[in-house]
Amino acid sequence: MPNEKKRVIISVNEIDKNNAGPKAKTDIDKILKKEGFQVINLRFNWHSKLLKFKYINWNIPRLMKNLQADEIFFQFPTYSRALMNAFIRDIRAYTKAKLILIIHDLESLRSYKDDPTYKPEEINWLKQVDGLIVHNNTMAKWIKDNGITTPMVILGLFDYLNPQSVNNNYQYTKTLCFAGNLKKAQFLSKVPAKISLDVYGPNFSGVTDNDVKYKGVYSPEELPAHLTENFGLIWDGSSAEECNGMYGEYLQYNCPHKASLYLSTGIPIIVWNKAAIASIISKNKLGYTISSLYELPGLLSSITQSDFSLVKKNALSFSNDLRNGNHIKKAIANIEAIIW
């Protein structure tokens, strides 16, 4: 039976002629459009004070006054505090819709970790809405521990609309790949020798004293076609002994999008054992967890062809859920069941 509620998804991205917006957000837009949602995709210029004034005092109020909706799902955050305040204010003032945040990032735990003014504001946003879709149980616990009682459900890994064929190769050859912004991946120079690691992404510094090989930069849609390795690595920071720094510590709370890239391609994962997704990987037998990169040689040598075939089969099975948008569809059904 079709959902009779009028459902809207709002995504706000910075104007950038070279970028349609982050893939995690644009994929959710595409998945929910097929589910009958009205998609409102706003392109704003954060850096112009004049334009920001116009958005807050004209564009956003006008949009909300004319919007007919029973449910508004908002892809959070907007990366502008003033705009976020304006959206919540005007959705509440001009609509009777239930407001649900699909959380992509909690910047109190990442970019604004050292800004004492940001956390209370972010907590206040989360308190003002009707529902939250959060990454995992660790993120949910942090939210609850900060006094937020808003109903919430778990997304799990982000879906990944992957137009390429899956990596169907079951032959185990001890190979690893790592994809991402390589400027943040200072640990690459510390990967143990004789570990075959192919890296993809912008800002490669040129590591030469180990077996890290640079394979180029591709769009999120093209990249899966180039990933032929056995495992995808999830690590962050400057250390081989732990994930450190702002992004490394954030792995304890988020479900990184690269996990969705790897698994939607049918590639099992090796991840830091203190990462929030480590329990997902272990529970579903989608790969292995390590406490240090120095464990890689022993781990890769200990994995048998039979061991690899098991996690490979599971990754290929899991890829179907991510490619079909099953995670966001299930999370929306779950939050709707709670808030109505």
How would you describe the overall organization of this protein?
By secondary structure, the chain is an alpha/beta fold. It has two domains: 7-159 and 325-339, Rossmann fold; 175-322, Glycogen Phosphorylase B (Rossmann fold). It contains eleven helices and twelve strands. The protein has helices at residues 23-34, 49-65, 81-94, 118-127, 137-145, 245-250, 257-264, 278-283, 296-302, 305-323, 326-339, and strands spanning 7-14, 38-44, 71-76, 98-103, 131-134, 152-154, 175-179, 196-200, 212-214, 231-234, 269-272, 287-290. The protein is globular and about 60 Å long. The model has no long low-confidence stretch (mean pLDDT 95).
Short note summarizing the structure:
Pfam families: Gtf3_C, Gtf3_N. This is Sugar transferase. This protein has eleven helices and twelve strands.
Number of helices: 11
Would you give the CATH topology of the largest domain? Answer: Rossmann fold
Judging from the principal axes of the Cα atoms, what is the shape?
Answer: globular
Strand content: 15-25%
The total count of strands amounts to: 12
SSE run: EHEHEHEHEHEEEEEHHEHEHHH
CATH architecture of the largest domain: 3-Layer(aba) Sandwich
Contiguous runs where pLDDT drops below 50 for at least 5 residues: none
Give the CATH H-level superfamily of the largest domain. Glycogen Phosphorylase B
Radius of gyration using CA atoms only: 21 Å
**Domain module tally:** 2
Q: Which strands sit side by side, in order, in the main sheet?
A: 2-1-3-4-5-6
CATH class of the largest domain: Alpha Beta
